[in-house]
């Protein structure tokens, strides 16, 4: 299984809603990532989890809250988002070898989020 | 942190011609350089990668070259086809930082 699975594929939410994005991989990868991608722009790193611990938080607003319940799952909890948060949210995972990430990141299909 | 610059931002070629996209990086500790292709509405997908101990790698019509001294790497696509039309992103990985930094992307259009 070389897939990273994200749900839902599309999400429309109001600014007062709480929702969660989910990501799952069964490749044994111990690094997992959340990226935000706006149209015609590169993926922008939000969070990195390594061995289920948050290792990088790229100054993301607190209305985005990541969670890594186990080595296969990664969630992104959303609360009180703004219209400018509308984007494609991509999850990815990588193999970690002796503490180093040295291989490709496998991306999920993404969740197209629209905040109204 | 790492900074990756990518050029050109748009590239149009005739079917059958070659396309070259260039990237430079700033962090000499970066040791892995993947190239991703992203079609409209789809996920980025790896098309080729190269590690810092290799100068060139080829896979059919696609090749990547790396110059560690100059800190630049390039993607070469030969005999381009309309289905090669997409956005291409270069990236650089600093292993200790566990962080992949992307270039700004190149919209490649192959004209039939």
Strand content of chain A: over 45%
Structural class of chain B: mainly beta
- Strand element count of chain B: 11
Major sheet description of chain A: 7 strands, mixed
Mean pLDDT of chain B: 93
Largest interface: A-B, 25 and 26 residues
Q: What is the number of helical segments of chain B per DSSP (H or I, 4+ residues)?
A: 0
Mean pLDDT of chain A: 91
Q: Which regions of chain A contain 5 or more consecutive residues with pLDDT less than 50?
A: none
Helix content of chain A: under 10%
Oligomer status: heterodimer
Specify the structural class of chain A.
Answer: mainly beta
End-to-end separation of chain B in angstroms reads 41 Å
Number of strands of chain A: 13
The coarse overall form of chain B would be globular
Radius of gyration of chain A, in angstroms, nearest whole number: 14 Å
Model description:
- The complex is a heterodimer of chains A (116) and B (112).
- In chain A, 0% of the residues lie in helices and 59% in strands.
- With 116 residues, chain A is mainly β.
- In chain A, the strands form three sheets. In chain A, strands 2, 4, 5, 6, 9, 12 and 13 form a seven-stranded mixed β-sheet that branches. In chain A, strands 1-3-8-7 form a four-stranded antiparallel β-sheet, with no helix packed on it. Chain A has a two-stranded antiparallel sheet with strand order 10-11.
- Chain A is globular.
- The mean pLDDT of chain A is 91.
- By secondary structure, chain B is mostly beta strands.
- Helix content of chain B is 0%, strand content 58%.
- Chain B is built from no helices and eleven strands.
- Chain B is globular, with a radius of gyration of 13 Å.
- Chain A binds chain B through residues 31, 33, 40-43, 45, 48, 50, 55-56, 90, 94, 96, 100-110, and chain B through 31-32, 34, 36, 42-46, 49, 51, 87, 89, 93, 95-105, 107.
């Amino acid at each position: 299984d070389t897939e990273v699975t994200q749900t839902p594929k599309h999400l429309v939410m109001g600014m007062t809603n709480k929702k969660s994005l989910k990501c799952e991989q069964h490749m044994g990868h111990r690094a997992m990532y959340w990226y935000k991608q706006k149209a015609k722009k590169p993926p922008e790193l939000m969070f990195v989890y390594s061995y289920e611990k948050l290792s990088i938080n790229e100054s993301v607003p607190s209305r985005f809250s990541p969670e890594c319940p186990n080595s296969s799952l990664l969630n992104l909890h959303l609360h009180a988002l703004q219209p400018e948060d509308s984007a494609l949210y991509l999850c990815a995972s990588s193999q970690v070898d002796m503490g180093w990430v040295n291989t490709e990141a496998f991306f999920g299909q993404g969740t197209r989020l629209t905040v109204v | 942190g790492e900074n990756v610059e990518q050029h050109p931002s748009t590239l149009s070629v005739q079917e059958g011609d070659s396309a070259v996209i260039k990237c430079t990086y700033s962090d000499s500790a970066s040791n892995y350089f993947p190239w991703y292709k992203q079609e409209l509405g789809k996920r980025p997908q790896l098309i080729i990668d190269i590690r810092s101990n290799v100068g060139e790698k080829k896979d059919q019509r696609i090749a990547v070259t790396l110059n560690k001294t100059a800190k630049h790497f390039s993607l070469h696509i030969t005999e381009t086809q309309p289905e090669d039309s997409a956005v291409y992103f270069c990236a650089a990985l600093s292993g200790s930082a566990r962080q992949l930094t992307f270039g700004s992307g190149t919209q490649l259009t192959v004209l039939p």
